[in-house]
Hints:
It contains 7 helices and 10 strands. By secondary structure, it is an alpha/beta fold. Residues 243-247 have low confidence and may be disordered. Magnesium ion (MG) binds at residues 52-53.
Amino acid sequence: MREDANAAMIIAEDLVKVYRMGESNVEALRGVSLTVQAGEFVSIMGPSGSGKSTLMHILGCLDHPTSGRLIIDGEEISKATDNRLAEIRNRKIGFVFQQFNLLSRTTALANVELPLLYSGVGSTERRNRAREALERVGLGHRITHLPNQLSGGEQQRVAIARALINNPTIIMADEPTGNLDTKAGAEVLKILDNLNEHGITLILVTHEREVAEHAHRIIHLRDGKIVHSEVLREKKPENGKAAHLAGLNENA
Ligand SMILES: Nc1ncnc2c1ncn2[C@@H]1O[C@H](COP(=O)(O)OP(=O)(O)O)[C@@H](O)[C@H]1O
Ligand SMILES: [Mg+2]
């Protein structure tokens, strides 16, 4: 855990990502450098195809950059093996996606428990922790529901509970409100705001200005490059000190 509240949580230097498509190459990222402080909330905006998801995948250790350096919580990971990447991801990063990505024949509780299966946590502890995580997002009364018995907003809250189950230091959300109506979107944003207020570093990808404005800072991408960075408000100095110990239970 970081004692220094102003420590850099993510340092990206000159990230390049080239997708090979048969004969041709797609340059999805063309030299992106950015630093995200512990406890900071950063939005990434940009038109469709500008490289937002690609950047989030690389910052989240879901994919390797073609070139460039990435340091997460003090660890150089550009050259890490796939196993090590998976470990960092499981321990430090929670993901939330536009499509929720829940297993459809599986209850809310079992969906949230899932990441713990891979961490070798016993079944009783899995269930207790999953229940707590669902309570944190205000779904303690919906644990045996299947995804199709939940509203879109509730499904996204289940996905957030799943992202929280390993006590991540960082949450990455790619268009988390993209499939939700305004009211459900606002509820999801309130939960994300609250997690950030309790010290979680938050990266939010969106193409909606109003959604992006929840952040401390907005980074604008275009054609795989950062074209503009806007500071909206200062991060409170204490934010980022102790994400793991933060009173996340006050959420919901
Ligand atoms: N797996 C992939 N294979 C080939 N091209 C891809 C792949 N993923 C993304 N791209 C291309 O890279 C560019 C950036 O995509 P993406 O990061 O998804 O943008 P955004 O999230 O901003 O819409 C686009 O031109 C897209 O078509
Ligand atoms: Mg995208």
